[in-house]
Specification:
The protein is of the alpha+beta class and about 160 residues long. The protein folds into two domains: about 40 residues; about 100 residues, Rieske [2Fe-2S] iron-sulphur domain (Rieske Iron-sulfur Protein, 3-layer Sandwich). The protein contains two helices and ten strands; from the N terminus they run αβαβββββββββ. The strands form two sheets. Strands 1-10-9-4-3-2 form a six-stranded antiparallel β-sheet. The protein has a four-stranded antiparallel β-sheet with strand order 5-6-7-8, with no helix packed on it. The protein is elongated and about 90 Å long. The termini are far apart.
């Protein structure tokens, strides 16, 4: 009778040891995995090459004079200037990486985080941004569509 109690206690103890070990491994994994993803992010996937604005994006461009789209996984601001010229720049401020917006009344691209301002050539007008905004190539299609690509991407 005594022998059965010992076996039962030993199996209970080994079960608890396995459960504790699995819990510790799970906890370590939940700490290590995010750190590894931060140090080595997954590659961005998505379409590459020129991006054509959708009907919804075209409507937003006409309504608010700018739209933010993805081109090769990067945010790009496409805007229509007062002279109806379509321009495209990286929508990521060169200071802290905030998303910029277009102020059509002032004809400037504005970063709301630290009041950085860029002209319609992407050059810094004021604020802390250290570099101009990277420019993208814009091409109007015969059917009225708009293609946007990184420099050297539209043929």
């Amino acid at each position: 009778m005594r022998e059965n109690g010992c076996k039962s206690e030993a199996s209970r103890r080994s079960f608890l040891d396995v459960l504790l070990g699995a819990s510790i491994l799970g906890w370590l994994g939940s700490i290590v995995y995010p750190v590894l993803r931060y140090l080595k992010p997954l590659p961005q996937t998505g379409p590459t090459g020129p991006t054509r604005l959708t009907r919804e994006e075209m409507a937003k461009l006409e309504q608010s004079q700018f739209v933010i789209i993805l081109v090769n996984g990067q945010r790009v601001i496409v805007l229509e200037s007062a002279s109806e010229q379509v321009l495209a720049f990286s929508a990521k401020c060169t200071h802290e990486g905030c998303t910029v917006t277009y102020l059509p009344g002032q004809s400037v691209i504005w970063c709301p985080c630290h009041d950085g301002r860029f002209d319609l050539s992407g050059r810094v007008l004021s604020g802390p941004p250290p570099q101009p905004l990277p420019k993208y190539v814009v091409q109007r299609q015969p059917d009225g569509g708009i293609l946007v690509a990184a420099q050297g991407g539209v043929t």
